[in-house]
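Q: For a teaching session next week I want to show students how multiple molecules come together into a single three-dimensional assembly. I've collected the sequence lines for a complex. Could you give me the predicted structure tokens for the whole thing so I can convert them for display?
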Amino acid sequence: MAPLLEVRNLRTDFRTGAGVVRAVDGLSYTVERGETIAIVGESGSGKSVGALSVMRLIPNPPGRITGGEVLFAGRDLMKLPEEAMREVRGGDIGMVFQEPMTSLNPVLTIGRQITETIEQHRGADRVAADRRAVELLRLVGMADPARRLKQYPHQLSGGMRQRVMIAIALACEPKLIIADEPTTALDVTIQAQILALMQNLTRRLDVALIIITHNLGVVARYAQRVNVMYAGRIVESGTAEQIYHNPRHPYTVALLRSVPRLDRPRQARLDPVEGQPPDLTRLDEGCAFRSRCRFAVASCARSAPPLDPTEEKGHLSACFRNHELGVAMASVA
Amino acid sequence: MYRYLVKRLLLVIPTLFGAAALVFFLMRLIPGDVCLVRLGAGGATVTAQALHTCHVKLGLDKPLWLQFVLFIWGLFHFNLGISLWSGYPVSYEIATRFPITLEIAIFATVLSIMIAVPAGTISAIKQNSWTDFFVRTFAISGIAMPSFWLGIMTLIGVLNLSQYLTGREWMPPISYIPLLQHPLENLSAVFLPAITVGYQFSAVVMRMTRSAMLEVLREDYIRTARAKGLIERIIINRHALKNSMLPVVTVIGIQFAFLIGGLVVTEQVFNINGLGRLLVEAVQNEDYTLTQGIVLLVVTVFILTNLIIDIVYAWLDPRIRYA
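A: Of course. Below is the structure for the complete assembly, covering every listed component.
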């Protein structure tokens, strides 16, 4: 059976004063039905732009999707007319954004912001939409949902607002939810609640979930598969287990070393990823990570390594030396 | 909300008192004497006796503090006194002039909102398109053209056009006929000045709408609305417009209040006996009481307009309503 979502070689450019920024540069990944995957990467790696490109929500100008396919349930979203694409947005694919403070409209009630989605996609009348909204708020764990409907975003806490965002994303029983850094703006305690809620609901309702994050902790706990993104493309892909215990890309290795861990002695120094993220206006044909890479060799400058399978099943790496890396890491551990 | 409103309304009293005191004393700082103007109108020399009689008659011989107390005391009875120049009650003088000014101000405001808000919104949605350039050029012209010039051009245009179309020159009627008495006559007198003033007014509102709209369209919640698959019309009307109207409402309110006392030039051009002209005449004649009356009226309009703006704010933005 074909995957629910298949992104193939997606490219998105931004025209800026400094030149053309290739924010997403040949992005490819798949999401199976009901599966939770993570897309991990540092700021500016193209995670969010990639997600917005799938939804065709890139503001144009300055942005432009220049190539690739996004196959969703058998249709190429890039080729859909705008009207059909609107049906997909909020209907088949829901989105949860990073900032619950600013992502909800301050002058509309919570209820209105939920019901308008239902009215748009289901043609439901106001009463039916209201009933559904109450149901949704209960689903995302909000007490006294009927009263909440009449409240405004500023009367809710950040965590509550993110629950509302999740309710909106779930409103029309989508097949996929894309959550763009859903917990970054929240308190740590709330983060766990929201993630558990999303995991719980997507499993129960059989909704696939893409979590976009820079937080590796989130990835380990909630995602079945992890895609590590660097400079606009996926550099490593595998199960959370594989990525954690047997990373096969120097960037993933560096990323894992930069995270504080409770199971290591406190004296152990953190090891930040050295150097700066690359200038996306000046990418050449070589590997984008090579200037920061300890393992770089001459061939890295000649061409970018393709995302090839490693000897582990389902584990892909875009590094010429990924096999050597596996051996090296094993000896360190 | 209601407590807030009551508080705002009570604040009107000290504000008015302050304005009354200010205008009372400032007027008396201006050199000159209404009696000299009255008696010496024909260039005759004035005897000290005649001047004194005039002062006594108008109450100007009393000490300044007493005049002030009497003025304030009168205000409490809604009595603005007698015009020193014409001898008619100030309230009567204002009542004959205020309706036309108010009418022009309201017409100009309504007209400009009807033009400016849609035009500014379209301009923002289609940023840097030909429509946008056209709207912006139109707006800049409105701000750049002085109102007297625009008024004269409008009049000449109407004259020539009517001559060309009907063979007879047509001019708007000069005398003011109340709207309810003869709507058509009234509107034909008010229409041209309202357009002239409304054009400038709309230019400012248009630019404000455009920039506010551009800002709102970049907000995260607009992206959320798009991600929900809403149609563009709902995104603009429901999500963007209400948020972008806050600064626009402020500009509209201030402009409207300004029109009440500030239409001097336009009234001159169209030969309309409005409040602006009355105010200029009152100051020239050293007519203390009339000036005070008009200024107080303008201040009141300003305060009320601001109050209305605040109420509209609260209606538009729940964060203000529940604060």
